[in-house]
Amino acid sequence: MRMTDPDGILYIGRSGLQGKSPARTLANRIREFENKHHSGGITYADSAARLKGVTRFAGHRLEVRAMFLPDEMIVQEEARIINSYFRKYAELPPCNSSAGSRAPRRIKGGA
User: Fold this and answer.
1) What pTM value is reported for the model?
2) What per-residue confidence (pLDDT) applies to 107?
3) Weakest-pLDDT range from 17-21, 62-66, 82-86
4) Residue 71 vs residues 58, 60, 65, 96: alpha-carbon distances, Å
5) Cα angle 101, 93, 16; round to 5
6) Are 30 and 64 in contact (CB under 8 A)?
7) Where are the domains of the chain?
8) C-alpha to C-alpha distance for 56 and 20, rounded to whole angstroms
9) Within a 10 A sphere around the Cβ of 107, how many other Cβ atoms?
């Protein structure tokens, strides 16, 4: 049975590791979404276009929340949050095209 996400989370993911070059920042990730240079941004733009004019979604705003963690914790925390969402709602957030290679296999299999 599917649950409804009252927070309306669309995407869970990381923007990058500080130790890598070039640095992938939160601002870069937001720009990728806005310019549809990321799969989550493409999905969001497509959904927003389809819902334009639907009264229930009139005036919606996209909100971004971030956690700033040491590099060694980022990948593990991303996987934990995605797993937690999947366990609660039995699916990934709508703009996450996959659980990614970082998530444990049990998500991919759905059990």
Assistant:
1) 0.70
2) 46
3) 17-21
4) 38, 33, 18, 22
5) 45
6) yes
7) 26-109
8) 42
9) 19
Query: Who has greater pLDDT, 103 or 72?
Result: 72
Q: Provide mean pLDDT across the span 52-65.
A: 82
Q: Is the peptide bond before 22 cis (omega within 30 degrees of 0)?
A: yes
Structure tokens at 72: 């060694």
Average pLDDT, the chain: 79
Return the structure tokens found at 54: 């639907």
What is the 8-class DSSP label of residue 70?
A: -
Q: Which residue has the tokens 């039995």?
A: 90
Q: How much is the CA Rg of the chain, to the nearest whole Å?
A: 15
- Residue 66 and residue 79: Cα distance in Å, rounded? 15
pLDDT bracket for residue 98 (50, 70, 90): low
Contact, 81 vs 12, CB < 8 A?
Answer: yes
> How is residue 55 annotated by DSSP?
G
Say how many residues make up the chain. Answer: 111
Helix axes 26-34, 39-51, angle to 10 degrees: 40
